[in-house]
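Practice problem: predict the structure.
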Amino acid sequence: MQSIRSILKRRHIEASAPCRIDMGGTLDISTFYYPLRHLSPCTFNIAIDLKTRVRLSSYHKGMVKVSSKGFESAEYPFNKAPFDHPLGLMFAIAAYFGAEGVYIDIDSSSPPRSALGGSSAAAVALVGALLNIAPGLVKHAEALNFSRRKAAILAYVLEGSVARVPCGLQDQLAAAYGGVNAWYWRSDIEGPLFRKKVVVKKTFHKDLERHIALAYCGIPHESKNINSKWVKQFLSGKSYELWAEIVVCTQKFIDALAEKNFRDASAAMNAEMDIRRKMTPDVLDDMGVKLVDSAVENNCGARFTGAGGGGCIWAIGEIENMRRLSGIWEKILSRRRGACLLDVKIDSQGLMVNSRPIG
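Answer:
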């Protein structure tokens, strides 16, 4: 059987996957969706054309090297690569596939640690590339053939195996499938992990882009800090009713957006945002507070992406309100170096893999 290293001496392998903006996140963690299953918990996200690209090439025999924007490159002997490293998830994926003698080069078009799901997008792209290059090397029957679903789930379970904190699945699904979707989480242990519902069809994506704004606040986030607080609160029994309200807000948002009712969608988003701020005031920094409050004042909805605590804020509303809000946000963002509005284009493709001969 050929090694991955030997295949890469003859072929270029590149994969890409999009980041996402979201609503109702954290409900994709089993800690929450099992106890709340009678309420049909769901998460909404939009895949955006800020892609993470992974390129594979052959490297020194017995070694694994990973490079990624925003991190110092690292290389280790294959059997000694640390999974608790900042790039540990990539080393864990390489270990799963037996990918020794491989150089993994990651290039992301989103700001590092911007709470847009970039690390999960990288994981999906890397898994997709490795599933595509050498399916015969994978021992597990479920991963024998390349597919978006398998790439998403495998990236998810591998992240969960090394993260040391509860992990959700929404980032991987957005990266794998693209589009504008709601994800309904497992309600029966014998059923599928998730159910996908298309909220906005591809034919309306260009129009939807005019109703959305995305701001990078100029400082990185650390999702586990906020998420760990939510998990501890929920496990202690102190926030069950609040999370039940978040489920309802997310459902209302999805229903309103499906009807292109941006007024009601904004209201549902702001109601969810109020609950999150009540549970964890530090989910927004000073700039985030200004961005969110200005959106509400201009009849738009606004919410942090991911678990907040830095990173990005996104907004949705009627086109005229969004035009006005974008100007206000530009002024607010200009006060911090590195903060800016990001271009929002919806990605409808999801995971893409390209393989071609060298030379």
